[in-house]
């Protein structure tokens, strides 16, 4: 009963200082929104990293940084680089101890989504998350040269159906001109994959032969002039096995052999290659991201601190003007602890309002960010907007708010003990 | 009535009576209970239960309505709430007191205290001091902000309500014109301290 009337009192008191109260709530809201968004992206990024590839023991590509290789193959973000020969791929795939090997070839795109050339057995072998295989929402793997299988994000975002014809573009950015478009050799969608929450969702998968056919009339990465142009049917006839691919995925009979195999491929006699174990490489990458992430996290806590100090200032500076209000409350029977609770209650209401605003703000920011992040990195945010992030944050913020309210409340409490009741002293 | 020039210690005496200040020597007893024998917390409690205050001005919590201001003592004192409830509902009692003091209009009762005139504020303060029938009401120059007509009307209403609630009133003023309203009066000469 008494607690309720004190909260009502605190509510009315804040209502009388509506402008300052709303500003404070807005500040706390912004601060906690920053915190929630950063936290959510951090957790999702880690989740996406760990679930992006599974069952692949080695990623083999041209010699260079393991991070670039990983980014290119797993997240499909990097430029293809010079790649490796198809001959090396064939020899490595035939090595004893290799369970399966998949060639991957990048360099084209479709409305900003990467096109990946690979083998049809990709859909059988590739695993993500906890060894989950890829599943088809509709259709089947590609069989013809000009067949394409698209990820869930591509299908949803571009509104594609089975059997629809699509034109691919040369390069990783959307084509600027018709010359760099492969529109003369359209692909037919034969399969749509179910959502995986990884980069697969935003990939257009075609066969290696399809990649070759697209570029059959190209020379040294240059588009053909009008006389040399080949139609799709002509390209079909001249297409041959690729000379180069971007990289390959390797699964071994025994995981323990990965280190040995890595060393062996690192000394590949035909050309300089490097092999990356996705697990350790992901960790390495995560550590790089982790630094930035911790900085971000630290900054968002700084923001929260500043905001709470701001609230403390507001409460504190308000006290002087409220002396006579406090004296009146004392005169009608409020004990010093009631005054204390009143101030704490105000801090609590401000923080609570702020955190609720913050959660709403964060939710809308995240859903706005979501589409971009899914499209670029296969990160899905809003789906996992869960209690595990919010609850500790909520509790932490409220505790911090209480702490910030403690100081002015203590001051009022002391003054209530020592001051007389006459409001004229403060009037 | 306590009378005397400024600085004669009227207000100090009132604070002694209310247990806000404690005497350095001697003893102040209200209803047979000495303030000095009680701890600060006990004094707070006893004051909340038995004493109502009316000040010269700034009596009300500005952001609460007149009605909510009247109800405040009942939030902090169980005996006063029970006493107020015994005559009907809590809110009804507050409305009755306000009406008896000439503030019967609903829109005035629900108006925020900061938007009432000084005369209205003092009557709200009187209703608040009287709610829950405290044994004693201590009033420190409650009429000095009012003109003569308002002053007499205010005192009459205050007394008639106090009589029916069986509440004693100790009023401090330097205004000798108030004398006829009171059964007893004391004059303080010179400083007490």
Helix percent of chain B reads 40-55%
Q: Indicate the structural class of chain A.
A: alpha+beta
Contiguous runs where pLDDT drops below 50 for at least 5 residues of chain A: 423-427
- Portion in strands of chain B: 5-15%
Descriptive keywords:
heterodimer; A: 427 residues; alpha+beta; two-stranded antiparallel sheet; elongated; B: 193 residues; alpha/beta; 8 helices; 12% strand; globular
How would you sum up this structure, described in words?
- The complex is a heterodimer of chains A (427) and B (193).
- Chain A has 427 residues and is an alpha+beta fold.
- In chain A, 53% of the residues lie in helices and 15% in strands.
- In chain A, the strands form three sheets. In chain A, strands 1, 3, 4, 7, 8, 9, 10, 11, 12, 14 and 15 form an eleven-stranded mixed sheet that branches. A two-stranded antiparallel ribbon of chain A has the order 2-13. Chain A has a two-stranded antiparallel sheet with strand order 5-6.
- In chain A, strand 5 and strand 6 form a beta hairpin.
- The longest helix of chain A has 44 residues.
- Chain B is of the alpha/beta class.
- The two termini of chain B are 20 Å apart.
- In chain B, helix 4 packs across helix 5 and helix 7 runs parallel beside helix 8.
- Chain B has eight helices and seven strands; from the N terminus they run βαββαβαααααβαββ.
- The interface between A and B is medium-sized, with 27 and 32 residues.
